[in-house]
Amino acid sequence: MFKPILKDYNVILASGSPRRFELMKKLDIPFNLELKEIDEVYDQSLKREEITNCLAKLKAEPFLKDLKQRDLLITADTIVWHLGKALGKPKDKEEAV
Questions:
Q1: Is-catalytic flag, 39?
Q2: I need a labelling partner for 85 at 20 to 30 A (CA). Which of 18, 42, 51, 77 fits?
Q3: What is the C-alpha separation between 36 and 15, in angstroms, rounded?
Q4: Tens-place pLDDT, residues 40-79
């Protein structure tokens, strides 16, 4: 479905999420996985999608100076918002439970 539309683009997935990787594969989108280290730090006054939008932009910043005309950069982030606050990534299995 997307393959013909994206055939002239270099699609770059800038996310280490196994779910996003699998989604791209299932959609049959040819892509390159490229990860760059960032500090996932955001203003604590941000709420819900403001947090994920901020983190997605942070993930994009290290790529911006090197993007070419036909590059398509995909970044994303996920949070769990519960009882008015963002839950961070669990440190271990016990904390996740």
A1: no
A2: 18
A3: 9
A4: 899 999 999 999 999 999 999 999 999 999 999 999 998 8
